[in-house]
Amino acid sequence: MARAGATLGAALAYFGLVFGAGFALGVLRTLFVVPRVGARAAELLEMPLMLLVIVLAARWIVRHRVVAQRTSGAWRVGLLALALLLGAEIALAAGLRGLTPTQALFERDPVAGVAYTLALLAFAAMPALM
Predict the structure, then answer these.
(1) Percentage of the chain lying above the pLDDT 70 cut
(2) Which of 66, 79, 80, 95 suits a disulfide with 11, CB 3.0-4.6 Å?
(3) Could you tell me the sign of the dihedral formed by the alpha carbons of 29, 34, 35, 41, in that order?
(4) Average pLDDT over every residue of 19-48
(5) How many CA atoms are closer than 13 Å to the CA of 24, on its beta-carbon side?
(6) What is the CA radius of gyration of the chain?
(7) Using CA atoms, how far apart are residues 55 and 129, in angstroms rounded to an integer?
(8) CA of 55: how far to CAs of 2, 49, 69, in Å?
(9) pLDDT tier at 64, thresholds 50, 70, 90
(10) Does residue 22 have a pLDDT over 90?
(11) CB–CB of 17/81 below 8 Å?
């Protein structure tokens, strides 16, 4: 049971670090970048920053959380954090924009949506890759 709690704690920390940064960057993107360059370009400009956040957060989790130092534990942390992230994305899209879960996850710009999907995969895998 202690290992499950440690995994959940590491996943929550990893999720919190990345989600918090993504939320802050998303606000800045929406308010300042989208009006100047459009939604697609703004999302694509944000992606390298989010990938950097993912790498730094995963590195921190692996260094500071014992459960994430084993490959199997790191995969559990990444996948659980991904589930938390998708849940938060759906909740915010429903609450702030009135979207359904399907719309929130699958009705995206074709180019930025592919980049978003790849970033989600990187997010899930990064603790194990560190």
Answers:
(1) 95
(2) 80
(3) positive
(4) 96
(5) 8
(6) 15
(7) 9
(8) 26, 10, 15
(9) confident
(10) yes
(11) no
What does the block give as tokens for 52?
């950097």
Burial label for 66, CB within 10 Å (0-12, 13-18, 19+), is exposed
What does the block give as tokens for 102? 């399907």
Q: Is 76 helix (H, G, I), strand (E, B) or coil?
A: helix
Q: Would you state the structure tokens that stand for residue 18, as one six-digit string?
A: 């990345």
In residues, how long is the chain? 130
Residue given tokens 């993504």 in the structure block: 22
Report the alpha-carbon distance of residue 124 to residue 96 in Å, rounded.
25
Give the pair of three-digit tokens for residue 110.
């074709």
H or E element in which residue 23 lies: helix 2-28
H-type helices in 30-99, by residue range? 34-37, 39-64, 71-97
**Euclidean distance between the first and final Cα of the chain, in Å?**
25
Residue whose entry in the numeric block shows the structure tokens 């994430």: 68
Helix/strand/coil for 108 = coil
- Token pair of 120 as six digits: 């989600």
d(CA 8, CA 18): 15
**Do 77 and 14 contact (CB within 8 A), yes or no?**
yes
